[in-house]
Amino acid sequence: MNLDIKKRLSIFLLGAFILTLGVSLIIKGDLGAGSWDSVNVGLYNKIGLSIGTFAFIIAIFMVIIAGILRKGKFNFYTLITAFILGYLTDFWIFILNKLLTFNNIYIRILYLLCGIVILSFGLALYLIPNLAPNSLDDCMMAFRERFNLGVGISKVITDTIGIIIAFIVSGPIGLGTILITFSVGPLTNIIYNKLSNKLY
């Protein structure tokens, strides 16, 4: 990619800023979140630390698991991305709680749908510079490498583990979880292809 490091970093941070807005809108809709976001919300409701803080704590565990799968190779740099995403998620949740006071079912559905589109757009931007992945994504790739699995199968495994834990901690698993599971990947792929062609 013909982008210098400053441009790549700018695109990466802009993508993170946008995708965490999408995540926060989905959480605000309270109709079900992504598997690991549901874990973070469930832990937040039970224990009280911020959602972003739990995202970072889980990222630490993901780094450890990925390192074990890679027989001692720990990618601690992925925690930088995890910290940024966690911080921005907390920022957006704070802002949205102040600005969005309407909470009937139709508004919540709107939050969910807008959140999915915004998340997909931000995720595509975040992926284009090919900088440090989030710890969860890196752990997924560690599963792929260790057991010679496809990326899709590895994602299903990590998402399934997240859903199981989310149920245990009473996280918001629901309609939104299903929509996110089946729509974010294809949407992100379409947006990624269009944006990367413009930014090359």
From TrEMBL:
Looking up InterPro entries in the UniProt record yields: YczE/YyaS-like
Highest taxon of the lineage: Bacteria
Note whether rRNA-binding occurs among the keywords.
no
**Where are the membrane-spanning stretches?**
9-27, 47-69, 76-95, 107-128, 149-169, 175-192
- Is this entry keyworded Transmembrane helix? yes
The UniProt keywords, alphabetically, are: Membrane, Transmembrane, Transmembrane helix
From the UniProt record, list the coiled-coil ranges. Answer: none
Q: Which PANTHER family match?
A: INTEGRAL MEMBRANE PROTEIN, INTEGRAL MEMBRANE PROTEIN-RELATED
User: Which protein, by its recorded name, is this?
Assistant: Membrane protein YczE
Q: Give the originating organism.
A: Clostridium isatidis
